[in-house]
Design brief:
By secondary structure, this protein is an alpha/beta fold. 46% of the residues lie in helices and 16% in strands. The protein has helices at residues 38-63, 65-85, 105-123, 160-167, 177-188, 250-254, 256-265, 275-280, 284-308, 324-337, 340-343, 357-386, 396-404; strands at residues 2-8, 12-18, 24-31, 128-135, 137-139, 145-148, 172-176, 196-202, 206-212, 215-216, 312-316, 347-350.
């Protein structure tokens, strides 16, 4: 199964062809040009999809030639043997006589495989199942953008799914970038051995996603786990106000942006200090800012542990690159506030996938959204191949597995 996966934000659009098991094939990258409005963004997305689609078709055309070329090479080798050792019974010396040469069964098997592969290629043409898109903000179930993160506000109110499907030949599946991060880590990264994975983006803002049995938990309206907007301190009625309109949200208390803000609020002296510079500083203001952020994030994650009981929490984002000591402190805060029976075995780990989590997560969304159709397709292929008169000892299932690995 193949898909076109796209990860885009306000700055760039990154696209790739993704195969089974997360194999990345052709990639491309162009500017989003978000400042030029929604039409330019949509046109740029369409151009990436069309480029990758054309590249895929060319690759498949070449790759389908390989199995038959390999078989025909083997058949030609047997023909050469026949010519070399004919006529049967030819004497090379008084001591050595070539026995009568018979066409080996392997030759017949090659001929049969050639016939099966020809039929296979007639019935099964590798194709792209759909387009997966990872983006900041989120859409409703119909694909209408109801919140555009960063500089993508011009897309709010646009049915991006419909626009792209009308301009391309593919079904389109759109997912929040934090959810795609969580899904990529749950399938290919630090959480791949677990069935309940909480992915957390700890960066300029705070967000994340919950993946259960390798599928994103979407909630009733496809917009679940906006836990950066959980009110952690309801007593705050002043200070920085969150974009959602409330005071005391987790994002405003524990994000990288807030660590810097809190540091200066407490009298920090380093100019233009980001979260990392604050962590490395020995100033009391820096230590307090980091301590407060760890406390609030631990409190928020404890609530998530109580609500969803994940097996592992995978941390991503720029602030997640803090040293392991921070993770130890964060885990203590989670255990301090979460239900002990749920928190005692919780794993807290750093992400394993760095640059490609957006496209890998988007590809996984396509995979599980179209999986039933793929199963139906393979069933049709199997029925077609069984119409060929195969010998009783011909293992069709093994042949299909070998073909999938290009080992004919």
């Amino acid at each position: 199964m193949y898909s076109i996966a796209i990860d885009f934000g306000g700055t760039k659009i990154k696209g790739a062809i993704i195969g089974d098991k997360g194999t990345i094939y052709t990639t491309c990258r162009i500017p989003t040009e978000a400042d030029k409005g929604k039409e330019r963004i949509i046109r740029n997305l369409v151009s990436v999809i069309n480029f990758l689609s054309s590249a895929f078709e060319k690759q498949m055309e070449e790759s389908q030639k390989a199995p038959l070329q390999k078989l025909r090479s083997g058949i030609q080798t047997f023909r050469q043997k026949l010519l070399t050792f004919a006529p049967p019974g030819l004497v090379f010396s008084s001591r050595f006589k070539i026995p009568k040469f018979r066409i080996p069964k392997e030759f017949e098997k090659l001929r049969l495989k050639e016939k099966v592969i020809k039929k296979f290629l007639e019935v099964f043409k590798p194709h792209i199942n759909g387009v997966g898109i990872s983006m900041p903000g989120f859409t409703d179930k119909k694909g209408k953008v109801i919140f555009g993160g960063g500089t993508l506000t011009s897309l709010v109110g646009v049915n991006l799914k419909k626009e792209l499907e009308d301009r391309t030949k593919f079904p389109v599946f759109i997912e929040n970038d934090a959810n795609c991060f969580a899904l990529a880590e749950a399938v290919h990264g630090a959480g791949k051995r677990y069935n309940a994975v909480l992915g957390v983006i700890w960066g300029t803002g705070i967000g994340g996603g919950l993946v259960i049995n390798k599928k994103i938990y979407s909630g009733a309206f496809k917009d679940s786990l906006e836990f950066g907007h959980m009110v952690i301190d309801p007593n705050l009625t002043s200070g920085p106000k969150c974009g959602c309109g409330h005071y005391g949200c987790l994002e405003m208390l524990a994000s990288g942006k807030n660590i810097s803000r809190r540091y200066y609020e407490l009298g920090g002296k380093i100019k233009n200090a980001g979260a990392r510079e604050v962590y490395l500083s020995s100033e009391p203001a820096a230590k307090k800012a980091i301590s407060d952020a760890i406390h609030y994030l631990g409190l928020g994650l404890a609530d998530m542990v109580d609500a969803f009981n994940p097996e592992v929490i995978v941390m991503g984002g720029s602030v997640s690159r803090f040293p392991p000591a921070v993770y130890g402190r964060l885990k203590k805060e989670i255990k301090k506030y979460a239900l002990p029976v749920l928190a005692k075995n919780i794993l807290l780990v750093r992400y394993k996938i760095s640059a490609d989590e957006g496209i890998l997560g988007a590809a996984e969304v396509v995979r599980y959204s179209t999986e039933p159709n793929a199963e139906e397709r393979m069933s049709e292929i199997s029925k077609e191949l069984k119409r060929i008169k195969l010998p009783e000892n011909f293992d069709l299932d093994r042949f299909l597995r070998d073909y999938a690995r290009m080992k004919v």
